[in-house]
Amino acid sequence: MTGLNATIENNKIVTSVTSATSSLIGGTYPITYRLTTDTVTSDSYLLVTVRDPAQKTPVRVPVDPRKKTLRLPKIILGQVRALQVCLTPQGPGGASDTPTVRLASNPGNSIVDTTTLNNLRMRGTSDSITANIGVIDLTTSQSRLLKGGKSVVLDVNVSKTSTGGNGACDFGTDSTMTLYPIGLTQVRKTQVVAKK
User: Fold this and answer.
1) Which of 11, 16, 41, 60 to pair with 76, CA 20 to 30 A apart?
2) Per-residue pLDDT tens for 147-173?
3) Phi and psi at residue 163, to the nearest 5°
4) In this model, does residue 184 exceed pLDDT 70?
5) Prediction pTM value
């Protein structure tokens, strides 16, 4: 495949991207390999996942435990010409406790916003994804976003789908973002009295 190099080193197949700005970064791609025994030749395929080292996801995000909604910090996509970004929350308890990830504004026709089972899947051009990656909210219909003082972990996956095939929110550059409750140790009440 153009842009992807494969060699055999110490009986292992080693793959590398030939350019730091390759459109292959952030996806899973097939490599064709050939096995030959005497006069019999057989071709097979090996799927290789190429990740984008320049992608940066905020690792730990402090959250007021009283909140029902939160604007997520912006994710840096790196070199990938991203066509799909997936954010999938892991609930603190069961499925009923899992918050929902959604776009906070209407991005228009250049991007598809699909929310299924609390998961947000953004598909579009690199420019449209980059413009909307900073307006993502985490929200819940429950009384609190974080229940019982437990953290919520978001799985983040970024990929180029045109040649990678990432319909199930995997096989791209993946990372996690942990939302944890800020400890509130003291609440002070202040009474204001009108001056006579």
Assistant:
1) 16
2) 888 889 999 988 876 555 556 787 788
3) -125, -5
4) no
5) 0.76
Instruction: Tell the residue number behind the tokens 């959604």, with chain if given.
Output: 102
How do 27-37 and 136-139 pair as beta strands?
A: unpaired
Strand blocks (E) in the chain: 4-9, 12-17, 27-37, 40-50, 60-63, 69-71, 84-90, 100-103, 111-116, 119-124, 136-139, 152-159, 173-181
Q: In the chain, which residues fall in CATH 2.60.40?
A: 60-181
What does the pLDDT look like over 35-72, one tens digit per residue? 888 888 898 888 777 788 888 999 999 999 889 999 99
Q: Which CATH architecture has domain 60-181?
A: Sandwich (2.60)
Type of residue at 128: S
Query: Which residue's structure tokens are 């996509």?
Result: 77
